[in-house]
Amino acid sequence: MESDTLRVYDQAAAAYDAEPNSVLFTETAAVLALLDLRKGDALLDAACGTGKYVREGLKGGADCVGLDFSREMLALAAAKCPGARFVRHDLMSPPLPFAGGAFGKIILAHALWHLAGVAALFAEFARLLGPGGRLVVTVTHPEAAFKRFEYRREDCPGGDEIDISKERRRYTLGEITAAALSAGLRPAAAETIQVDERLRPVLTEESYARVRGTPLILALRFDKP
After folding, report:
1. Residue 103: phi, psi to the nearest 5?
2. What CATH number does domain 4-223 carry, 3.40.50.300, 1.20.58.100, 3.30.9.10, 3.40.50.150?
3. What are the tens digits of pLDDT across the range 134-177?
4. Distance separating alpha carbons of residues 225 and 4, to the nearest angstrom
5. Fewer CB within 10 A of the end CB, N or C, for the chain?
């Protein structure tokens, strides 16, 4: 669990929600539509960070649990989400500390790129979902052109700069789908979220003109029969 990635997220926690990170706010509406949260749903926000989707779930009357490996992120999430339960655990250390069939909905938002062995992780998610359960995963789109992004102000957390490039992976749709299928989950929806007007405030005008309409995020839904 002690890794450079963990250090980055512990360090970034205090400013995380205030940073103009383009992937944090453009996907929300699409993810909520895929999750289709209902009152009484049991939701697991895996790698919950500061609790973004836990907060959304609570608004709709869901019974929410947030899981993350960062103590600092979890402390902020707990303060922002009264009524939810939070658990510290590393996604790459199965089994996750929940009973089989404990959840009807699971969200894994922008954490997959830090993880290896996704087949084992998806098998664990399948164990945690009850019949008819739903898993929604978001990842950076494999064709996202981040090298062409130029921000109006620095888009990185404060503190010492830490290189986590060796701990980042960009999975293809085929690789993610194969992991889900091997776990017994059925692909149900795939949505490409593009760069649009929502990113104009954080990008320079020149950069926005170059990348407008290009793929940004891949949002996927898998169902448990």
Report:
1. -125, 150
2. 3.40.50.150
3. 999 999 898 988 888 887 754 444 444 434 344 467 788 999 99
4. 38
5. C
Residues 51/66, Cβ–Cβ less than 8 Å? yes
pLDDT in tens, 44-83: 999 999 999 999 999 999 999 999 999 999 999 999 999 9
Are 108 and 75 within 8 A, CB to CB? no
Decide if 196 contacts 215 (C-beta within 8 A).
no
How high is the pLDDT of residue 170?
A: 77
- Is the preceding peptide bond at 157 cis, omega within 30 degrees of 0? no
Return the DSSP state at 197.
Answer: G
Nearest to 224 by CA among 88, 119, 131: 131
Do strands 215-223 and 129-140 pair parallel, antiparallel, or not at all (unpaired)? antiparallel
Q: CB–CB of 68/97 below 8 Å?
A: no
Count H helices, E strands: the chain?
8, 7
